[in-house]
Amino acid sequence: MKSLFRSELGKIILMSFIGLLVGYQWDNIWLGLSTALAIYILSHLYYYRRLDEWLAKGGSAEKPFTDLFWSTIMDQVLRLLSQLRRDKAQLKSDVEYFKESFQALESAVVVVDARGAIDWCNLASANLLGIDITRDKSQLFNNLIRSPEAISYLEARQFDKPLEIVSPLAIDIRLELQATTFRQNYTLIFARNVTEVFKLESMRRDFVANVSHELRTPLTVITGYLETLRDHGEDLTPVWSRAIAQMLEQSHRMDSMVEDLIWLSRLEALPAKDDEIEVIDLKAILASVVSDAQLSAPNKIVDIDIAMDKFIALGTGLAEPLQIMGSYLELRSAFGNLVQNAVKYTAEDGHIQVQCFPRHNKLIVRVVDNGDGIDSLHLPRLTERFYRADSSRTTATGGTGLGLAIVKHILARHDAELDIASVVGEGSQFSCVFPLSRLSTPSEEKL
Ligand code: ADP
Fold first, then answer.
1. pLDDT 10s digits, 199-209
2. Which end of the chain, N or C, is more open, meaning fewer C-beta atoms within 10 Å of its C-beta?
């Protein structure tokens, strides 16, 4: 490029020199010089026009130049053009590759634009969602899916968890929807067929529920006979008395386990229904749970602290009595389990407090104890069925290992979560974190 510049400069100097010579002949060196430079400029204008025409034809025709300067520029343009064509072809093949891999998926993939209209979908979308791109492109996704849950899921744009829905094609097909946003307001929706998993899960639930129901009657008979033997067994030897006491203890434990399993199956089987929501006096429900705990452990201090001033300061019309919307039976069971656990896992003079306060748009109902605490190792698994942080201790306390699983299920049915914090040797905090919208202002009607 440097030599090209030099040769072009040489050309200008030569033409100027010739112009000056001719001008000298004409007795007007300026006229000669300007004529020479005008010829130079016109020649470049001519070449520029030819370049323009050549580019307008897409740069594919024969090179139109013999001039070294323009021909070199042409070569560079040609190189760039062919590079661009190669990049475009590569990009096209990459796009095709991804499209083909999406087509090969068994799950449905749908791309929805900012308006909610279908932009693209793969073949599986036809079998799972009844969407065919050739027919349904630009149709509103919500109009085709016709599922109120899916519509609110997509509108809320809270895609951290998947959603299970019934396929719009058949009620016996269960789909798991997972959406994610990309570019600006584009949504990528994955729909996976989870019918088999759903069937297996239902079978497991039914099996547990049926076995638990079937166990109820024989257990009642066994417990009844054991109680009779204990009450009227004056002639029993000390060995038999101890054996019967132990059998009775274990049969009571099995009884609690069966009751908990039946309760858990019920919670899992029935979806939370809006028409079963009651307006519950929070202080009253906590007081009744605390009074039960106090009866079972008179030496332990169990008190309630409701930060009413903090609720009033929120300025949302909240006033005493603080009311929460939900199922009384379920919430009593959840709070009861937490308070009973706190009682079980604290020493004889233990102190348990049930706190209730607002924090960052959430309503927190927290059970705090100064018991043994739990090693952080166990915290993530505590809500699993039958998981115990300390099996020997639990056997002594007669626990079933199902309490926290029940709490977790109940809270999920109330749009809430269980948060556990604990320090070994200092105590534990079990927090039920509800959305603040669960609170009802006194003027609010029962839902
Ligand atoms: P369990 O019937 O055994 O109490 P849960 O599901 O209620 O079953 O609790 C699971 C485990 O969590 C318990 O076995 C116990 O190890 C631990 N745990 C629960 N609450 C507390 C608490 N307040 N303090 C210490 N450990 C606790």
1. 998 899 899 99
2. N
